[in-house]
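Re: that chain you flagged

S.,

Sorry for the slow reply, it's been a week of failed gels. I finally had a moment to sit down with the sequence you sent. For the record, here it is as I used it:
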Amino acid sequence: MSRAASKQYTVEQLQEVYALSLPKAIQLLDRFGGDAAVIDKMMKRLVR
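Prediction finished late last night. Pasting the structure tokens below so you have them in one place:
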């Protein structure tokens, strides 16, 4: 799948979906470029 066609998260979406603080949501966006597939994969590995 091309990068343009992949789903991208916004800060607000990350906060809603994963109940993250603003600094943590921004950190994820910076680290993974907002790529939803990569973020979802990483978040599934975390045990809450």
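What I noticed first: Residues 22-32 form the longest helix (11 residues).

Talk soon,
D.
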